[in-house]
Design goal:
Blueprint: H1 9-20, H2 25-32, H3 36-49, H4 58-92
Helix pairs in contact: 1-3
Length: 93
């Protein structure tokens, strides 16, 4: 049995947009090698949630971005502290 390949959010969006522009679900199914049930589910998800409906866990993406930003800010803070320590030592000398 063949393992199912996970489709990207952008691929799903393009399929759904073609469908919404008037191409029939049967044409989409043949064109992309998908079942009509998959396409219907993607369409419903897209209508309910936009492109984020296709992402595994959109809230995790927000969390990951926030964590990266916190890391950047921590590094900047460390650099400022080291700079201030260096300046303080220079003044004492």
């Amino acid at each position: 049995m063949e393992k199912k390949k996970r489709k990207s959010a952008s691929f799903k969006t393009s399929v759904v947009m073609e469908l919404l522009r008037g191409e029939s679900i049967e044409e989409q199914s043949r064109k992309h090698g998908l079942t009509m049930a998959e396409i219907s589910e993607w369409r419903d998800d897209f209508i309910a949630n936009g492109m984020n409906g296709f992402k595994k866990k959109p809230e995790n993406a927000k969390l990951a971005r926030a964590e990266r930003r916190i890391g950047q800010l921590e590094m900047e803070l460390d650099l400022v502290k080291k700079k201030n320590e260096f300046i303080a030592k220079q003044r004492k000398s």
